[in-house]
Amino acid sequence: MLLIGVAGTELSKQECDWLQHDAVAGVVLFKRNFLSRTQVTELSSAIRAVASRPQLICVDQEGGRVQRFHEGFSSLPPLRHYGHLYDTDAVTSLSLVEEHAWLMASEMRAIGVDLSFAPVVDLWRGNRAIGDRAFSAEPHAVADFVRAYIRGMHSAGMAATLKHFPGHGSVPEDTHLSQAVDSRPLDLLRAEDMLPFQVGIEAGADAVMMAHVIYPQVAPEPAGYSAHWIENILRAELGFRGVVFSDDIGMAAAAAAGDVAKRIHAHLDAGCDVVLVCHPELVEASLRAMQGRRSNTAALLGLVGRGALGWDGLLADARHNLAQSRLLSDLDTIV
Q1: Could you tell me if residue 155 is inside a domain?
Q2: Is residue 45 situated within a structural domain?
Q3: Which pTM does this prediction carry?
Q4: Is 247 a catalytic residue?
Q5: Catalytic site residue 70?
Q6: Of 22, 174, 176, 265, which is the active-site residue?
Q7: Residue 285 domain flag
Q8: Among residues 114, 144, 182, 247, which one is catalytic?
Q9: Backbone φ, ψ for residue 25 (5° rounding)
Q10: What pLDDT score does 172 carry?
Q11: Are strands 61-63 and 66-67 parallel, antiparallel or unpaired?
């Protein structure tokens, strides 16, 4: 199945046609798709109205520099902020992280977004793409944060997605722009970058997003289209039974697989349930690649919500105001 990107703030005729395709599982929204809270709620409704089956509507609403929707929504601190606080007050830091997760997930569900791809559980070790999106450099601290974040998302009724497996934080390269290679052995990866994923799976994470990073001591291809990483390690060794997402196949590091069709098939053949095609200009080629290929929708049914739950209902929940106040007060103490 494919999660596709659309170009603007309303659906075009061509995009409406895409949503009728059997291979399309849903849409990933970006800043380009946002004008206002009302508009993006209407866009979510329109996606569902024109599609031929239930659609999964997704976004990256992590906080900090990766927050696609701003005006009309809570301003969410980057996760690294809580890693700093953890060093002096772990209990408060974890409590605030749980509120961060609940607030983010509740606001997304109120406008009809089913899934924000969160939390980032990569280690904070200098990667250019990850940066302050990561909680901490210390695996056990990140594991504590993962438990808290999953609790917060689940209490808001949203599935949690761990990214980017098996860990993108310990190489400097940004896979949006170039290939990334992590030459460490598997035993070291297990003890460090993979530990928060293992803990998150045990805590009930519903989905995992793969990294485009190559780990040559484990497998020759990027993890996102490595059957060894997905089937042998993620599923067999770690016991993960949820949904496996690819990262965006439009990223530079995915191009090693070949053209768009080869990228699609490489990820699906390796065991990804859903492939992200975030760039609209790649969607037509992706749909052609899916012709004749059987699509499995069953894996996604547990992630699809009921549509917009309504902003007024969210504001009536006392926890919304409390969570906003707690996060704002915490930031005020460090300004």
Answers
A1: no
A2: yes
A3: 0.93
A4: yes
A5: no
A6: 176
A7: yes
A8: 247
A9: -95, -15
A10: 79
A11: antiparallel
